[in-house]
Specification:
mainly beta, 6-stranded antiparallel sheet
Length: about 130
């Protein structure tokens, strides 16, 4: 395959976007979106996305599978979680997040846009 990293290669029939340094490839299937999200080394939500989102913390829920890399999440209450590929991921709204190490983090995420929390029966905010 000519040394091409197929996990990072362009995907067919997707809506490709770049926002805040994240590369997103989005496919709609029914009411759900399936997204491949590539977070570059050095990415941090509060640095790169906060100015775009206009909120102090990420208020989106993330559910999917981390296929490469490591990410760390910190909720508003100071609780931290770390995910290392390969690992299933479930992150409630109200968090900061960043890539750990010098490798891009690649996640396959499933969402229902603004209805992700309610459609998946998740808490609206992190709690212990």
């Amino acid at each position: 395959m000519n040394g091409t990293d197929m996990l990072l290669a362009p995907l067919k029939r997707t809506d490709h976007r770049e926002i805040g340094g994240i590369e997103l490839d989005i496919v709609r299937t029914g009411a759900c979106r399936i997204k491949r999200m590539i977070y570059p080394p050095g990415f941090r939500w509060s640095t790169h996305m906060k100015p775009v989102a206009g909120t102090d913390l990420c208020m989106h829920a993330h559910v999917g599978f981390l296929v490469r890399g490591r990410i760390q999440i910190e909720y508003g209450d100071g609780c931290r979680l770390e995910f290392t590929a390969p690992e299933a991921v479930s992150i409630e709204p109200g968090h900061d997040g960043w890539v750990v190490g010098d490798q891009a983090a690649v996640m396959i995420e499933f969402d229902f846009e603004r209805d992700t929390v309610s459609r998946l029966g998740m808490p609206e905010a992190h709690c212990h």
